[in-house]
Amino acid sequence: MLQTFLNVWRLGIKELRGLLRDPLLIGLIIYAFTLGVYISSTATPDTLNRTTIAIVDEDNSQLSGRLTDAFLPPYFVKPEPLKLHEIDNALDRGTYTFVIVIPRNFQRDVIYGRATDIQLNVDATRMSQAFIGNGHIQQIIQQEIQKYYHASSPPAASVVVRNRFNPNLTRAWFGSVVQLIDDITMLAIILTGAALIRERENGTLEHLLVMPVTAFEIMLSKVWSMALIVLLATGISLFVVIKEILGVPIEGSAGLFFVGVALHLFAVTSLGIFLACIARNMPQLGIMIILILIPMQLLSGGVTPRESMPQLVQFVMQAAPTTHLVEFSQAILYRGAGLRVAAVSFAKLFIIGAVLFFVSLVRFRKTMVQS
Amino acid sequence: MKPLPREKENRSAVCFRHLSYRYGKTQALKDVSFTLAPQKLVGLIGPDGVGKSTLLSLISGARAIQKGDLFVLGGNLRSIAHRQKVCPRIAYMPQGLGKNLYFTLTVEENLQFFARLFGHDAAERRRRIDHLTKSTGLYPFLDRPAGKLSGGMKQKLGLCCALIHDPDLLILDEPTTGVDPLARRQFWDLIDRIRNERKNMSVIVATAYMDEAQRFDQLIAMDGGLILATGTPQELLAKTQQKNLDAAFIQLLPESKRQDHHTLVVPPLPDSADNEIAIKATGLTKRFGKFTAVDHVSFEIPRGEIFGFLGSNGCGKTTTMRMLTGLLPVTEGNAEIFGVKADHNTMASRLNLGYMTQSFSLYGELTVRQNLELYAHLYRIPADQVSGRVDEMLQRFQLQEVSGVYPKSLPLGIKQRLSLAAAVIHHPRLLILDEPTSGVDPVARDTFWELIIELSRRDKVTIFITTHFMNEAERCDRVSLMHQGRSLACDTPVHLVKARQARDLEEAFISFLEEASGTSGDTAMQENIPVKAEIPPKTPWWHFFAGYFNIRRWYSCMWRETLELARDPIRATLALFGAMLLMAVTGYGISMDVENLRYAVWDNDHSELSIDYANNIAGSRYFIEHPPIINYQDIDRRMSSGELSLVVEIPPDFGQKLEHGLQPEIAFWVDGAMPMRAETINGYVSMLHQEWLQNFAKYKLPLAPGGTSVAIQVRYHYNPDVRSLPAMVPAVIPLLLLMIPAVLAALAVVREKENGSIINLYVTPLTRLEFLLGKQCPYVIFATFSGILQILMAVFVFDVPVKGSVPFLLFSILIYSILATGMGLLASSVTRSQIAVIFLTMLGTILPASQLCGLITPVRAQNPLAQTIAAFYPTTYMLLICRGVFNKSLGFAELFRFLLPMLVMVPCFVVFGVSLLKKQES
């Protein structure tokens, strides 16, 4: 027992020393967890930011002028005037996401209460901006018309929206943590998986297997050492970049968050080892990592909400560690949830990790000796 | 600089003046000067790590010169033009087992690759390959992958690859290390014959075999980065007054290095009463598929014996050892170590075993001392004794000076000593050593044998050892001769020599082998196909830039890379179908429609109107209603657990106030943890609210005129049904086409760096441009094919039609594939390890391509920094082209302006890639 512990410790130290010998890799890790997180969370704006819009104003009235002025930065780029026949071309070129057409005699029709309509052209290939902006634009138009017409009488009932946990819906709050999660997962899988394949290719692993060292010890040493590196990077990223530089408030207990990340790391490093047991060389491993990583990133709930995905996807993604990490990070960091809420995610992560670890353990000796 | 006497340099084969070289703190060469006459066979001798390999790699042009001048074949190697000119006339075989070979390729393919590089036509290649392989005994193995060859056969193949183009200067760095005596004899005969036919050829060899050195025209003895003595073997013998070169070599060393050297005496194995058997093998057999590597081998080794395992290369020695260590399962028969079955060994029995593999298998990223410490700990040496034991080993194997050095930069001989030290550090009862002295200098070899003898005789350690040195075999108590998986004879060396009536063990060994293989070594030699005088391949007139780019060499490089890809069908299949799988996942999985949002109502009014208001939300397809809210704590609890994304709070007296025009206020509590979802919810609820208000107004004041009559007609262009799939599928193609080809191309180069075969770029006429383009080409074709599959999948599986110009899309995909693989090559040129390059490529592709290039958020909506990155990133343009062709029915005229930046990037990537790659080791 003590011997096992010592072996795991020694071999882990060896891993750490090996990592320190690769300055470029260290540089990349630092970049990913600091500048990388910063760029990605600040570059992608809040959804309605600098939305490109053009207005075809056939009316040239006071009302149409008011409508044009209602689209304000930072949500919208100042609307540009356009001619009717230019619409298709402009949308083809992708210059604008929205083109509003205000028909002739619009103001007069509104005043006299005649039926009239405004045309809103949307470039539907523009994904989220198109879908979300659409609602906002309609609302703005209706409000302006209301204001113009009933300048004196306010609407029958008003609305107040209280966005909890992120009052201004600042993208960076969530984006930075999602990016951090992606980095954690990517790094942990690559570090363990690729390191194992390299040891196999260099013959060092085979040598270890002749020695009084078990596969369990070799695997566990990789898990703890690589998890430690990633955990350290996560700490720097969370406290320095996310909290201090990006100014994201952390509601819940950071300690609890790190416990969860550690469990997640157990699961993904085991996944790395598992992949290394399947892949026969580094290029195969590289492709496998992409094939695993991309769906994990896209479908874990970090990019689009999980509840909107097909049932089957939701079910399958229960097996992905990132799903649970995204879930409890949101709960702990923003909603200030405690262990009671996070416990389920923690338990699932542990089960995923244990299964992967065990399956790899069974296959380890057989796959790691080259014949 | 004063003008040098050119005459001498021009006539000599190699001439170096004041040549110095240092690795960090270690001075490998100290201001050495020497001139080698042409047409000579020159030998470099000296202990390990005295600068022999450094000197050879400098002469070959593989390593950049630091200080001094080096003239090779009539010109200074400092001049790039000269290097390019003489490169095809030099052949270099680096140290180590098959360092310059491609292990997944067969023997034939390896040779074809090198022959193509030097521009021979098909018939000529065939002739040369057959000739060389017949002479070296590789002919029957033409179809075997190089990685499956035994160590010695790899050496032979390496030599064949070096000789294939009739060089004028042949540089061999310990070429016969690990080669069996028969093959070694054939090898030198071959060199002699080639020298006879090609009088102009000069050969420089570094060797640890002094019997080989005997036949050289001139010897250079080196030590500590200096030249100690030069002259013919006879001159050296005379100078040192010794009878043989081994002794002369030792005599030449400085006093400090030879002080404890003395002639070895092996005390006879004492007849001990206890006849404990250390290793017992009965009918041991190993088959790999149809191939029988070890065929019913039996032996019994008593405790304390030194058992020598001899045999030709590839005869199954290593396989037998791997079975004894328990690494390989036994197919048939039985092997027992101290009475325990080898493949059922326990931790305790592993403690009894010390093992040394043929190729270096310690950690390159740990220092010599750290390696030994790790092994000491893993072999359960008590912590307080580790330091002492490590010191003892360092001293015993003369490693003190390099204890803080990383093994990667150490010469082969010193690495071997380190491996040995690691194998004996725990005083095992059984040592299994696979060619432990290959590449080790004579003095160190004797020191090592001293230890072996001491271990065996004093500590009764059983030694199971393979070697190609016959003087070492003579020291064994018994030797077994293996050939093609079978044991030919097993007896004491003296008996074996007697049985064959041979002069010495080497002769006996060769006669056994010749008998077994049915041919004598000389018959192979007699198959004397004359080597034609070399006709240098003519440079066609259109090769005006032949110095930088030669179609033949490029093709050779591409052909080799394609073969390697073809040898690994799993990789290609995984990449192709993986991309399609990812497309399915992203196509179905990513949905921009936000639906199934969980919400609850907190109705404080319970009037008709408030219920109507709540029902209006419940009727929306976006929301799923959960049990109502009771109080504020309830909101807190259920929102922080993530159960609810929205809470609708209807104030008391909502209905009454509304009726009286008192403008009641409804509060929406939205979970803002995920801003994108929150914004969508905001949009939904404000639309629902407006809708309800309009209905309320109509019901209240049916006749009132007003703005409510303005309808907003929304026209969704390109995707009228506003489905995610048609918008998403074309957009993920550029993403998928980027990552996999980039990672594959990047690994293709860095793997060569890690395996050492990058040396072929350094020492052959292959230019960097040919190398990179050759590597890139198969992956470009592969990526384009993958792109076509993805288009087909989009059309036929996802039902997203291509509305615009298909030829334009295909052409763009081709260009984009070039860029994607180009990015991989860029990443590879700045990294050394495979781990780092995978990480770099993924960081460099996934983040920018999925977040900054307009996949989800339009580029123009981003901040200036992100916009700038996007402007220089090809995915930005490919995304526009894909959407343009798929969704917007556009073609060349409208989209060419997006293709143009990509076309401009192609040469930029190539220039960058070439300039970042190094043509010499520094």
Keyword list:
heterodimer, A: 371 residues, alpha/beta, abc type-2 transporter like fold, 14 helices, 5 strands, 7% strand, B: 922 residues, Rossmann fold, six-stranded mixed β-sheet, 24 strands, 16% strand, elongated
Helix content of chain B: 40-55%
Q: Give the overall average pLDDT of chain B.
A: 84
SSE ordering of chain A: HHEHEHEHEHEHHHHHHHH
β-strand percent of chain B reads: 15-25%
- Percent strand of chain A equals 5-15%
This entry's quaternary arrangement is heterodimer
Shape of chain A: elongated
Number of helices of chain B: 35
Proportion of residues in helical segments of chain A: 55-70%
* Strands in their spatial order, largest beta sheet of chain B: 5-6-7-3-8-9
Which segments of chain A are poorly predicted (pLDDT under 50) over 5 or more consecutive residues? none
Folded structure, characterized:
Chain A is of the alpha/beta class. Chain A has helices spanning 2-20, 23-43, 62-69, 87-93, 106-111, 127-149, 171-202, 204-210, 215-245, 254-278, 282-299, 311-316, 321-334, 339-368, and strands at residues 53-57, 80-81, 98-102, 116-123, 158-164. Chain A folds into 2 domains: 2-44 and 170-368, no CATH class; 53-149, abc type-2 transporter like fold. Chain A has 14 helices and 5 strands. Chain A has a 4-stranded mixed β-sheet. In chain A, 57% of the residues are buried. With 922 residues, chain B is α/β, with parallel strands linked by helices. Chain B folds into 5 domains: 6-99 and 167-258, Rossmann fold (3-Layer(aba) Sandwich), CATH 3.40.50.300; 275-352 and 429-441 and 451-528, P-loop containing nucleotide triphosphate hydrolases (Rossmann fold, 3-Layer(aba) Sandwich), CATH 3.40.50; 359-427, no CATH class; 551-586 and 721-916, no CATH class; 597-701, 3-Layer(aba) Sandwich (abc type-2 transporter like fold). In chain B, 49% of the residues lie in helices and 16% in strands. Chain B has 35 helices and 24 strands. In chain B, the strands form 5 sheets. In chain B, strands 5-6-7-3-8-9 form a 6-stranded mixed β-sheet, with helices on both faces. A 6-stranded mixed β-sheet of chain B has the order 15-16-17-12-18-19. In chain B, strands 11-10-13-14 form a 4-stranded antiparallel β-sheet, with helices on one face. In chain B, helix 7 links the parallel strand 6 and strand 7.
